[in-house]
Amino acid sequence: MASSSLIRFCFSITILILLQSCLHSVVSAKKTYIVNMKHNQKPESYATHREWYIDHFQTLTSASPDSLLYTYETAYHGFSAALSPSEVEALRQSDSVVGLYEDTIYKLHTTRTPEFLGLDKELDPRTGLTLRLDFNFLSCLQELDRASENVIVAVLDTGVWPELKSFSDANMPDIPSRWQGKCVAADDFDPKIHCNKKLIGAQVFSKGISASTEAKPLQSPRDTNGHGTHTASTAVGKQVQNVSLLGYARGNARGMAPHSRLAVYKVCWDEGCAGSDILAAMDMAMNDGVDVISMSLGGGSATYARDPIAIGAFAANEKGIFVSCSAGNSGPSESSLSNVAPWILTVGAGTIDRNFPAYASLGNGEKYTGVSLYSGEGMGEEKVGLIYDMGNNSDMCLNGSLDASLVRGKVVVCDRGFNPRVEKGLVVKAAGGVGMILANTEASGGEELLADAHLVPTVAVGKKIGDIIRQYAKTGKNPTAVLSFGGTVYNVKPSPVVAAFSSRGPNIVTPEIMKPDVFGPGVNILAGWSGAASPTELVDDTRRVEFNILSGTSMSCPHLSGIAVLLKAAHPDWSPSAIKSALMTTAYTLDNTNSPLLDTFNYSLSTPLAHGAGHVDPHKALIPGLVYNATTEDYIAFLCSLDYTMEMIETIVKRPNVTCSRKFRDPGQLNYPSFSVLFGKSRVVKYTRELTNVGPVGSVYKVSIRAPSSVAVSVKPTKLVFGEVGDKKRYTVTFVSKKGVSSMKNEFGLISWNNAQNQVKSPVSFLWTRRK
Ligand SMILES: *[C@@H]1O[C@H](CO)[C@@H](O)[C@H](O)[C@H]1NC(C)=O
Ligand SMILES: *[C@@H]1O[C@H](CO)[C@@H](O)[C@H](O)[C@H]1NC(C)=O
Ligand SMILES: *[C@@H]1O[C@H](CO)[C@@H](O)[C@H](O)[C@H]1NC(C)=O
Ligand SMILES: *[C@@H]1O[C@H](CO)[C@@H](O)[C@H](O)[C@H]1NC(C)=O
Ligand SMILES: *[C@@H]1O[C@H](CO)[C@@H](O)[C@H](O)[C@H]1NC(C)=O
Ligand SMILES: *[C@@H]1O[C@H](CO)[C@@H](O)[C@H](O)[C@H]1NC(C)=O
Predict the structure, then answer these.
(1) DSSP 721
(2) Which family is this sequence assigned to (predicted)?
(3) Which of 579, 628, 631, 689 to mutate to test the pocket of ligand 4 (most atoms within 8 A of CB)?
């Protein structure tokens, strides 16, 4: 080729490329991808994987270095980047790339944001949270307090309000020397002032959310939302005397592990939490030296190889870091869980024995009880007009739906659902209403009562009472009502009750693993709050509080994270799976009336698909007697039993040359502390489990079995005699279905190893299904 034509050729190529990239930026904006790389193919010429990733990215794409967001070392093998379709294509062609996955935006597991139309069946999941920090069952454990000073908890959330007294470092010894993390500076965050021997880390991860959304995140660890401060203070908050939300729930507030250290990783914003940011934070947390990771967020359930939280948590588990996640707030629908990987603790939510009663007295002489955290001026004694459903979606009290001429001076009945509960109150108030009865429906909450700090006198009632009041408001003669408030009451019975909003199984990713694992306090929980947000999170609410009351599995997850800290402090040599086993096998399934657990949706019996192994019992979890341990090799054998390609397994395991030389016949063979038995092709399911003695030398256990009449369960042997601590014994359990696959109703049982000191309990669910 003559040199002039070469120049012309090059020139036209350049123009073409320029044109293409211009067109692309018009036609299709860049999207964020997580790029999975073949880690062990790094050429020797690169000193680090990071250098290789950066160079590979720049060579294959014409993209500017800015579009590379993160490189990952520990939680993942690869990097994330904002890519155009042609750049995606270029990377896909590379032999060094396993795959590219579009970034996912996760949600906090308490939210008051309205759902889109059509999704109104989903509960709006966040409502009062009140950490029952006055749980006094942990206060006697002083040696544990000392030991937990050496345990570091990572909370991945909306940041932290560092001035809160829960994060004071009074009387704390120096930070453990292994700590590698940092506190970053911002205009409103001075590490020298705001970080201390309690709050030892504060970092921000926002490149993913900035690339995927219109968000312009504030580059500061400071929590302007409140959620992160709430979850962090629930897990590890120091005791703070005499706190309340506007007078409600007054008492001393403390987290589950008040002496352990807190490292905050801000990954969530008003727009949500990007998978690429979460992964970067997990990567950082692991390298910083944390012991427990608490994540009250999630969304959907993807196969593990496409789930950044599951992939990051696999590496954490291998490093001995315990990962605790919220189960989600999409109950009572079945199969509504997130965060179901077997190496994660999946936490559901229930009530505590405290409540906030409020009363609606009607003109017909009836008086009904609901709940409220209203704290303003009362309505007085005088009954006023009661009104419901004037058309135009006024039954839901959507913004703009209420006609002020009809509503003024009255109490308005509003159906729960669609828009935030507290917003309905403001809509009523703006239209001149003087009170609201917030009434649940079948689709929204059932009998579940969530308390909110409303701005207008409000009583929240369940569906049954709601139906009666709706009927009276529509058909009564001159219907009237007055609302009053009962403050805080304790010793509520029954409690705990499983929350209707708590997400349920079956686990749709791997149905052979029962999820959720366990549940804890998650309804009307008091904990710390952001000084930059109102208690209702409404912009029009100008109140500021140090403590707030919320609900959600976001609230129960950090309870379990904090209790895991205590177990880690008491037993530093236990693996994450041993800690999980202790939390599960000692959980209880009777409430404080000594009856089987109920569900707030309709106060009928709850099942392990909602409550897992049961409600956490921190005392018993410290001395479980026996544990079901699982090693990384066991989890690999589990993955090998799924119909995953080797590439998918490598993505999760992140080891060169991982093989499936050992694989389970069935994923349910994993040494898990619960059983999910699927009668599909076969009417016989057989599993072997291994128990490790963590109790006295020479302990003897006998099995007890509870099974539905439709299944025969046999265990061999029926007695286990253990030697030293660490001694392992196996048993085999055989489940035989007596009924055909056509019957789809789930049933439940229990396998328990007992002696005078301990009961080591495993729930069993039986599912008859045609899958597999
Ligand atoms: C707690 O605080 C409230 C309000 O600030 C105050 O009235 C009360 O006396 C305090 N109680 C105790 C025991 O300090
Ligand atoms: C419903 O809204 C429409 C338009 O805003 C209005 O004309 C109509 O009067 C409203 N109906 C009721 C019952 O308020
Ligand atoms: C209702 O909508 C108006 C107009 O968009 C807005 O100014 C107001 O804040 C909204 N009210 C509530 C309670 O959201
Ligand atoms: C569980 O397995 C891990 C990994 O093999 C081991 O380090 C640990 O000692 C075992 N036992 C317990 C109780 O964690
Ligand atoms: C309660 O609700 C569950 C669904 O969550 C349903 O299966 C059950 O039949 C209901 N029980 C009663 C008594 O209505
Ligand atoms: C993985 O396998 C390849 C090819 O079989 C080999 O060259 C390499 O050394 C192995 N790596 C490790 C860490 O075993």
Answers:
(1) E
(2) Belongs to the peptidase S8 family.
(3) 631
